[in-house]
Amino acid sequence: MLSTDKLKNKEVINIGDGRSIGFVSDIEVNLSTGTIDGIVIPGPRSFFTLKNSRENDIVIKWDKIRTVGEDVILVELQTY
User: Fold this and answer.
1) Is beta strand 65-68 parallel, antiparallel or unpaired with respect to 72-75?
2) Which of 51, 58, 48, 50 is nearest to 26 (CA)?
3) Residue 44 — pLDDT band, cuts 50, 70, 90?
């Protein structure tokens, strides 16, 4: 079983283009079913963005995750 603590701070890599998306900062949990809906990667912050603002965060749904490794999480996202 994978604990939520082990998901945090893992690097997230898109297998579509090999780019790093960032590091997991949080998870989304469905309280009704008790399942993880997705992972949250902090979006870019600027000088004018509030420290706790989450509007730029990236949420990757659980069905896009392909592999959770020791150090990284591989996801399959559409590349542009």
Assistant:
1) antiparallel
2) 58
3) confident
